Amino acid sequence: MELQHFSHKHPLFFREIIPNEDGGDEKACCCNGCLEVISSAYYGCSQCEFFLHKLCAELPQVIEHPLHPEHPLTLHKASSRVCDVCDNRWRNFGYRCSECNFDMDIICASAMERKIDHPSHEHPLTPVRRTALLRCDACCQEHQGRWYQCTTCVHFWIHRDCASLPSTIQRSDHKHPLTLSYSIPSQYTKFDPLCDICRKRLRRFSWVYYCGKCRYFTHVTCAPPKIVPLMSIHSPEIEGHDSNRLYLPPDDINSVSVINSLLEGLGLGENERAIELNHISHDHPLILFDVQTEESESYPGKNFKNDDILCEACVKPVISPFYKCSLCNFVLHKCCAELPTKLQHPFHPQHQLILLGKSPKWWGLFLCDGCGHFCNGFSFGCVDCEYYLDVSCGSLPSTITHEAHRDHLLHFKENLSGPCNACASGIGFPRRGFGCNTCDFELHTFCSLFPRTLRHRYDEHSLILTYSPVEDREADEYYCEICEEEMNPRLWSMMECILLEDGEDTHLEAY
Fold it and tell me: Which residues form a coiled coil (predicted)?
């Protein structure tokens, strides 16, 4: 069926569905008459991208309307007019009385209901004649403007902008296309996914864009890319490697890089290694063992490592160089033996913190105010305020760099504003941690200290810290090998990576 319409120079051809560029069934586009989404039969131009709803293309040229009985109204095309009925500005098609300078948009003028069949709802949706301030059932936000309503359900309303959302989009910060879903797919609802852009809760039955391969979700209102200042694009916050900056995560659970960074920041990292040391925390002299120059019957070998022997200060497995008491089993890493006795720390700027030995209370345990975990090692404490930090938290600076967020520095925050990107916990004590001033990335203090690799006594291979789901790995494959509970693939986990014999595939086990 061919139509020569007054609004277009080329003939228009009738079509049942809109052909996609790649041969698919349908492609989202808008009517050039009413500027609303087309989801049913239409007329289109074969030479250019001009489309009209079937109803818009077949509108009568002249009508008589009860709201303007004096003269007939003529259909015409205009660049911008204000409807004298609903007082809204409209473009393209409308009816006009040139004698009275009276204008009416085609929605107000049309005596018929131009309904659309939208895939998000089981019933046809009817355009509402007037604008209103309502809460949209698609994006769960309030909008002022035009609406589609389900007259069967009555309470179901979709804003015109949401009704026109494309089925897929591509964001520059994500390598896969994002698919529009009218609710969170059931296979991903167990862990209550958060929006990966604003880090806020997603309603189960609100519309989302998502990537199933990466378990990436976003509100439809967050999906359009934000405008980034030119300076932010061409002047990244982190350039090169700074020897005075703390880079996390630590290499492994034995790493004392956090403590070493404190000593370097205080100018204490280059002390000579005293062969014998009297430390304030112990009554006996401590002897230095350096595997590069020393060997002993108790600690033989140049690659000394024993996970059963822990440093009394940081409670981490002992690695050389270290100090040991020749009369008892008291052991200190060299860097822990050189910790300052007084410290001004950003977590507690009101007072200086004093280096304390093991707590006499609760069997040597104390609650660290930095990470919220109990510790039985040394502490930096303010006795008056009853404020205590373990050695690792006490060694943290006010600004860090983390591998999981390479582009920006992370700054200490007294109270995190949202859930932690590592564990997704947004409640509990304490809320101190590190956050990005440019975006919404935040980490608990404890989570920022997770090691990059660790060994488990029941596995011969190292486990690697993973920050995001492994591509093409199904959701039901994420189970902890220890407790056999399903894991949230969007949260950090320790995974085993074993290269198979053909050298082309990788086998992963989650912990």
Answer: none
Q: Are residues 248 and 377 in the same domain?
A: yes
Per-residue three-class SS string for 381-447: EECCCCEEEEHHHHCCCCEEEECCEEEEEEEEECCCCCCCCCCCCCCCCCCCEEECCCCCCEEEHHH
What's 309's domain CATH number? 3.30.60
**Host domain of residue 249:** 243-253+339-449
My answer on whether 330 and 422 are in the same domain is no
| C-alpha to C-alpha distance for 296 and 294, rounded to whole angstroms | 7
pLDDT digits (tens, 9 = 90+) for 394-443: 888 888 889 888 888 999 888 888 888 888 776 555 678 899 888 888 88
Report the C-alpha gap between 255 and 103 in whole angstroms. 75
The Cα 176–Cα 468 span in angstroms is 14
Q: Based on the domain organization, do 104 and 249 belong to the same domain?
A: no
- Determine whether 444 is exposed, middle or buried from the number of CB atoms within 10 Å of its CB (0-12, 13-18, 19+): buried
- Please tell me the pTM assigned to this model: 0.61
Q: Do 469 and 480 have their domain in common? A: yes
